[in-house]
């Protein structure tokens, strides 16, 4: 995924300012629902797993949750999202009610049948 791919998605998938949905956080994002339209999903797929590039953290959301709440931040102040802000891609899930579902430095997105790898703590107090 790159900024050209993101820019070619329909306007309905672009989030021009995440602070409208998540006060205190800034930047541009793209709705995961738009990204999922770019590829054929496996038959019966029902989960999407977002994993950090280092493989240390992952969150597996239902396909419906990923489509409804998932936003990948990719830019702040007209520049790529820096690593200290969770870049180059950071999953945020405003409205989901689970801050532990937010994944910094997303390096892989996997669509699966059944729950994928999920390292979120059982007590979701992130």
Structural summary, described in words:
This protein is of the alpha+beta class and 126 residues long. It has one domain (3-112): Oxidoreductase, molybdopterin-binding domain (Sulfite Oxidase, Chain A, domain 2). Helix content is 13%, strand content 28%. The chain has helices at 3-7, 32-36, 63-69; strands at 14-15, 28-31, 47-52, 58-62, 71-76, 79-80, 90-92, 106-112. The strands form two sheets. Strands 1, 2, 5, 6 and 7 form a five-stranded antiparallel sheet that branches. A three-stranded antiparallel sheet has the order 4-3-8. It is globular.
Give the low-confidence spans.
none
| Count of DSSP strands | 8
Principal-axes geometry comes out as globular
Alpha-beta content class: alpha+beta
CATH class: Alpha Beta
For this structure, what is the CATH homologous superfamily? Oxidoreductase, molybdopterin-binding domain
Going by CATH, the architecture would be Alpha-Beta Complex
Query: Whole-number radius of gyration?
Result: 14 Å
Tell me the domain tally.
Answer: 1
Strand content: 25-35%
Q: What is the number of helices? A: 3
Instruction: Using the coordinates shown, work out and report the CATH topology.
Output: Sulfite Oxidase, Chain A, domain 2
Q: What percent of the residues sit in helical stretches (DSSP H or I)?
A: 10-25%
Separation, N- and C-terminal Cα atoms: 27 Å
Main beta-sheet annotation:
5 strands, antiparallel
Order of helices and strands: HEEHEEHEEEE
Oligomer: single chain
Q: Please, what is the average pLDDT? A: 91
């Amino acid at each position: 995924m790159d900024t050209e791919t993101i820019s070619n998605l329909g306007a309905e998938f672009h989030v021009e300012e995440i602070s409208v949905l998540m006060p205190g956080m800034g930047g541009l994002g793209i709705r995961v629902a738009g990204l999922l339209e770019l590829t054929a999903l496996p038959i019966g797929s029902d989960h999407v797993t977002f994993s950090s590039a280092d493989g240390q953290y992952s969150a597996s959301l239902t396909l419906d949750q990923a489509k409804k709440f998932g936003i990948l931040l990719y830019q702040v102040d007209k520049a790529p999202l820096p690593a200290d802000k969770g870049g180059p891609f950071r999953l945020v899930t405003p409205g989901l009610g689970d801050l532990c579902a937010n994944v910094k430095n997303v390096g892989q997105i996997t669509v699966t049948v059944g729950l994928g790898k999920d390292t979120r703590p059982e007590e979701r107090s992130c």
